Amino acid sequence: MSGKDDKRSRASGGGAGKPAAAEPRQPETAPAGALKAGLYVLLFVLGVLTAVAGGLLQGAWFPGGLLLALAGAAALFTGGARAAVSVVGALVPAAGWLITVIGLSTTRAEGDFVFGAGLGAYVYMLGGIAVAVICTTASMGRSAHLGTARRGM
What we know:
The chain crosses the membrane at residues 34-54, 60-77, 84-107, 113-135. The protein is mainly α.
């Protein structure tokens, strides 16, 4: 075998006279950006649904329903931040929640509204905003130290 053939066989990956083996095809996956965008759309829709459910729940069972509605919002905002591994994961459902709560709190010409003018509605609106700020702030510290934290045994 000459030196020229030796270089060609090494470059092609096969021996002299052997055809190069074809690489196995990997299944095509969606790009990470598309998955992240889909996650954010899902979190926004969950924020809208949580606001509607919480608005109805806080008025139905006043003290317990209000706490349950705020706990559900907090769970969604924290879960969104953990799922997206970023602060945006907490902000997107909070934006959906806030837009929906504002939309539900405005009265229409027909007199239809979800939120009454009681204390529970104001506590739900302001408490939900406070919960969103707290969850977003807490996720900022967690995502900054995500890779450096030591795991317990």
